[in-house]
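A reminder from the course coordinator: this example appears on the midterm review sheet, so study it carefully.

Given structure:
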């Protein structure tokens, strides 16, 4: 894969991840969206960005696991006030990710720990995208059970799925626009 294609893929994944988060109900101001700016700015994870990374991880995993389980999961580690609490938060996140990998909901990866530690780079963006996609699928399954029963969701995310981000991006954008007007 050429360097340009790698950068393009990272931009696609990050943009799709932000769209997924907005569809899940993320406050747009967290990712820098205001009244005049309707498109999330990409590249926020080219350099270490632990504050935003932790906010997005907390939001996505809370959306995925629901308020009761999230309260248990993140008790004493959220909100984050110091570096020790940040370390503990990341351990909880790593445990949840390991659980999701064991269930087959996320592809396995050996680089998760380092990716979580830095909150930057393409691997971290890909992790956020994978988590946001899974959370969006589960949210859809919970909120539209009748639709899912008559028209099943596609197979869960696998190692091949990330290569289809360019295909998914227009779909998530349409869903976002639909949500704005409904």
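Designed residues:
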């Amino acid at each position: 894969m050429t360097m340009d294609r790698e950068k393009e893929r990272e931009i696609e994944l990050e943009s799709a991840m932000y769209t997924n988060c907005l569809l899940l109900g993320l406050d747009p101001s967290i990712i820098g969206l205001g009244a005049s700016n309707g498109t999330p700015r990409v590249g926020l994870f080219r350099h270490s960005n632990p504050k935003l990374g932790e906010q997005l991880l907390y939001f996505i995993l809370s959306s995925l696991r629901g308020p009761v389980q999230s309260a248990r999961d993140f008790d004493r580690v959220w909100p984050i006030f110091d570096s020790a609490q940040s370390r503990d938060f990341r351990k909880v996140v790593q445990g949840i990710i390991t659980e999701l990998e064991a269930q087959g909901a996320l592809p396995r990866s050996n680089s998760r720990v380092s990716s979580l530690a830095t909150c930057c780079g393409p691997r971290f963006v890909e992790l956020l995208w994978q988590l946001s996609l899974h959370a969006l699928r589960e949210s859809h399954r919970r909120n539209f059970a009748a639709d899912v029963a008559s028209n099943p969701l596609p197979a869960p995310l696998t190692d091949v799925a990330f290569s289809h981000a360019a295909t998914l991006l227009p779909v998530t954008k349409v869903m976002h626009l639909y949500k704005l007007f409904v």
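Residues 50-73 form the longest helix (24 residues). Residues 1-179 form one domain.
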